[in-house]
């Protein structure tokens, strides 16, 4: 089965294939440019994001070092050691306690980001700047979770003790730095806690440009959330797990949500700072690049369409000219001039086409000569079929009339026979007029009437304006002969032959021969009526088609027991031989 696209015109095929190729090339180049550009931009954004996060991480390291310095002042203070080194519940005097409180207050004054400083002894002693702070423990204080986490630790952690006092208001949040208090002999004395205001961390991290939807967060070694701008990540486990999954992503990896992550491990703590940048700029730039590529691609496609249209027309135009020339040849005009300018292949095709026309013209001339010879041969064959029998029967009729002494009838029949043969010969011409053709068949019927007497009657009618129309000669006589020998002769009584000439539509000429004989009985059995009518009918049919074409010929209306009507369909203008 032929593919549908092969039914398209060559111009359409060239246009479609050219546009498809152009679309593929432009699309491939556009995608390559798009992905290479966005990759470069993404790499630059990743570097910028990593630099910003590393910078903030180093600031955090400096800040934690500063806090550790403050904690060292308290943890290594002799007053603190003496105060918490007491056994039982007998503490030092109030002056010692006030000295420690003044030290704490001085630190708070010079460091406003510190919310509170708490000193907790191993036996429950408490010194802090917070008012009305009450801590209730069950069992031994050293078994408390917050206490155990601070033992041996100098790193910032978020303990359970402080989380009990958290609210969802970030103004009340704190991040605690806890460390163990020991004397010179490493004897455990208690725990020091420095509570930092939450916004102290925020102030360091807020200057990072991570995009509209970007954020940063901090996890500790236990993968607990130390810092996140959204409070839900402190209380909802599934959200904490999301942060852990994001932490495990490959560094500078671009996620499905257009998020870029970068981690920074703080050297002086177990904190991990993670920056999550939303690549809003990359997305905007991708959109802008896409718009530019679409506009540029559209311009290139329009240029490709215009150039392909010009090229396709230059190829299709000469082929179309050849096609029109072939259509003219198909209509019968071999004198077609073809002047095709195009590629070498098309010029060669044009040359071969003209050579073919010349050869066709030669063959047509040969066929025409052979047809003329064939017509003459057929006409001679027809004469040879008609003349012997008819001449013999006519002479027999004349002898019979002469024996009875009917001189006038002998003369009439002789004159009719002479005119009949004169019209048949007609100077060797193959054509005649309707007038002479009707006269020819009239002479034939007159002679047959003399032979059959009352057994035969005939009428000849013709419309006005038809007499001078040229037609091939001896069309009617074989039909009349067929009507007599296959119809009238077999009738017990008299028979009638009616001959008419009339004009049809579209320059058509109809000659009909009608009889009221018995008709063709075998025609009802499916036999060819041309064969039933003998050589004469078939000969006339072939000659009509030879002169006028396959659309013209004989039509037979058979009426068994009532007669036959044979109609010749001709043209009012005889085609030029």
From TrEMBL:
<keyword id="KW-1003">Cell membrane</keyword>
<dbReference type="InterPro" id="IPR036890">
    <property type="entry name" value="HATPase_C_sf"/>
</dbReference>
<dbReference type="InterPro" id="IPR003594">
    <property type="entry name" value="HATPase_dom"/>
</dbReference>
<keyword id="KW-0812">Transmembrane</keyword>
<dbReference type="InterPro" id="IPR010559">
    <property type="entry name" value="Sig_transdc_His_kin_internal"/>
</dbReference>
<dbReference type="InterPro" id="IPR003660">
    <property type="entry name" value="HAMP_dom"/>
</dbReference>
<keyword id="KW-1133">Transmembrane helix</keyword>
<keyword id="KW-0808">Transferase</keyword>
<keyword id="KW-0418">Kinase</keyword>
<feature type="domain" description="HAMP">
    <location>
        <begin position="313"/>
        <end position="365"/>
    </location>
</feature>
<dbReference type="Pfam" id="PF00672">
    <property type="entry name" value="HAMP"/>
</dbReference>
<dbReference type="Pfam" id="PF06580">
    <property type="entry name" value="His_kinase"/>
</dbReference>
<dbReference type="Pfam" id="PF02518">
    <property type="entry name" value="HATPase_c"/>
</dbReference>
<dbReference type="GO" id="GO:0000155">
    <property type="term" value="F:phosphorelay sensor kinase activity"/>
</dbReference>
<dbReference type="InterPro" id="IPR033479">
    <property type="entry name" value="dCache_1"/>
</dbReference>
<feature type="transmembrane region" description="Helical">
    <location>
        <begin position="12"/>
        <end position="35"/>
    </location>
</feature>
<protein>
    <submittedName>
        <fullName>Two-component system, sensor histidine kinase YesM</fullName>
    </submittedName>
</protein>
<keyword id="KW-0472">Membrane</keyword>
<feature type="transmembrane region" description="Helical">
    <location>
        <begin position="289"/>
        <end position="312"/>
    </location>
</feature>
<keyword id="KW-0597">Phosphoprotein</keyword>
<dbReference type="GO" id="GO:0005886">
    <property type="term" value="C:plasma membrane"/>
</dbReference>
<dbReference type="InterPro" id="IPR051552">
    <property type="entry name" value="HptR"/>
</dbReference>
<dbReference type="Pfam" id="PF02743">
    <property type="entry name" value="dCache_1"/>
</dbReference>
